[in-house]
Amino acid sequence: MQDFTAAFRAALDLVFRMDADLMEIVGLSLLVSGAAVTLACVIGFPLGAALGAGRFAGRMPLLVLVNAAMGLPPVVVGLTLYLLLSRAGPLGPLDLLYTPTAMILAQTVLVTPIVAAITAQIVADLSEEYRDLFATMGMRRTAQAATLMWDGRFALTTAVLAGAGRALAEVGAVVIVGGNIDHVTRVMTTAIALETSRGALELALGLGLILLTLSLGINAALMGVRAAARRLSDG
Amino acid sequence: MVEPDRLIRLAHTRPTLTQHPPVRIADLYLQRGGQYILRDITANLGLSDVTAIMGPNGAGKTQLLRLIAGLGQPDSGTIKFAWPDAPEKHRIALVFQRPVLLRRSALANLTHALAQYGVTRTRRTARAMELLDFGGLTDRANIPARALSGGEQQRLTLVRALGAAPDLLLLDEPTSNLDPRSTAAIEALIQRATAQGVRVILVTHDIGQARRLAKDILFLQDGQVAEHSPAPQFFDTPTSAQAAAYLRGELYL
Ligand SMILES: Nc1ncnc2c1ncn2[C@@H]1O[C@H](COP(=O)(O)OP(=O)(O)OP(=O)(O)O)[C@@H](O)[C@H]1O
Ligand SMILES: [Mg+2]
């Protein structure tokens, strides 16, 4: 218990001193996860809109697949990407293994289904409500999709924030394709896992505190956005 | 009161309309949930500027209006449209019984609709403000549409439909939530629209309103046409027992 209290103090000290190593790790985490979430939105929004409001063959199976993919185990994604990116793999020549780019790719694979599935749900509900209106206005599919996405904009931040939560918290994928290399691919979750196993509790705890704060912040933002949405759209 | 010979006079002033009724419904059947909710409907509509569709709850008024608007297909029968000046190109606007509004301000709902109707970007806002003024909603422009009161929402959906510059305006109980003053305002709006040549088909339970506005009444009960008469005749000497009972405030079973 004594040990733990001391470690906790040291951790707080690291955080408030804005220790350089600690900040580098936090910075890389935000960069990797931020890039992954951005990419996931670029793919997931249109995909989700098509799945939610589109009419094409294979929509249902694809929807089932995307929903199932929300629960992809990060280690399996990491392993698959590792096999693809490793020297002998088909993408080996790109030389991406153990780089932040590989980590971004891994997290994009994890987050895209979340963004797409939540988007599909939001768009499907709205589309149901607006269908007759759109029909009487004779709107084209693309105009309909644009209207649905804009009207769902607040609800859609849920998708973004849920994706961000997943990306920041996962460790299995980034540790396999990133390798937790100091100053290169070390992010919060991989550092926590490594430092804890090495017995260096203060850094692990400091990072843990920051991670927790970020996750609380994301959730607070989520609630704020929802409240704003209700004020603006439903009164 | 409506002049008794109004229909006949209309027929003289608009001969082409009489020869080619704007909306011709023939042998229409519609099935829902294993039952026919519209049966053997044959009627020429739009011969006068305002046609009222009346009938008890569940008679099939809303479903008929939806079919005319092109929302869904009948199981059998046809609905044909003919406009003397533009037989192919006609615009139908439908105002739903329950307002459907986008999650945007009242103004943005109108500019969105105008964009769909092909109004250029530079003219949208001015036109939308005109429409808001029309509906007495100028001071509500920037309020989220779904936060408006029930009556304000109904007025907004009506002016949105007018924004389509329709040839045929279908209204499903447009004043059911309105206070007397707003009802009068909407009725004036409808009359202004008809003066510009818009044909209106109006579903209403408000007998006074039907008397004030409609030139002919299509009375539905149990998914069938019980009567289709010029308004004065319908209100004074209805030919069907169903319409007579409805007008007396009874339900004919
Ligand atoms: N999907 C459906 N399945 C079964 N019955 C349906 C379905 N849709 C509509 N109906 C029935 O069709 C009938 C006609 O409905 P409609 O909405 O046209 O009535 P209405 O004349 O507009 O009544 P109101 O005056 O209450 O608005 C109703 O009895 C309704 O329950
Ligand atoms: Mg109805």
TrEMBL record, chain A:
Domain ABC transmembrane type-1 intervals: 26-222
GO cellular component, one term: plasma membrane
Major site of localization recorded for this protein: membrane
PROSITE patterns noted in UniProt: ABC_TM1
Tagged with keyword Membrane: yes
Residues annotated as transmembrane: 25-50, 62-84, 104-124, 203-225
Record keywords, A-Z: Membrane, Transmembrane, Transmembrane helix
Record-linked PANTHER family: PERMEASE COMPONENT OF TUNGSTATE ABC TRANSPORTER (PTHR43632:SF1)
Protein name: Tungstate transport system permease protein
Source organism (scientific name): Pontivivens marinum
From TrEMBL, chain B:
ABC transporter domain ranges (all copies): 23-247
Any one cellular-component term (Gene Ontology): plasma membrane
Membrane topology: Peripheral membrane protein
Predominant place of localization: membrane
Pfam families listed in its UniProt record: ABC_tran
UniProt keyword annotations, A-Z: ATP-binding, Cell membrane, Membrane, Nucleotide-binding, Transport
SMART domains noted in UniProt: AAA
Subcellular location: Cell membrane
MF (Gene Ontology): ATP binding; ATP hydrolysis activity
InterPro entries hit by this protein: AAA+_ATPase, ABC_transporter-like_ATP-bd, ABC_transporter-like_CS, MetN_ABC_transporter-like, P-loop_NTPase
Gene3D superfamilies: P-loop containing nucleotide triphosphate hydrolases
SUPFAM superfamilies (UniProt xref): P-loop containing nucleoside triphosphate hydrolases
Family stated for the protein in its record: Belongs to the ABC transporter superfamily.
Name of the featured protein: Tungstate transport system ATP-binding protein
Organism, as annotated: Pontivivens marinum
Organismal lineage: Bacteria, Pseudomonadati, Pseudomonadota, Alphaproteobacteria, Rhodobacterales
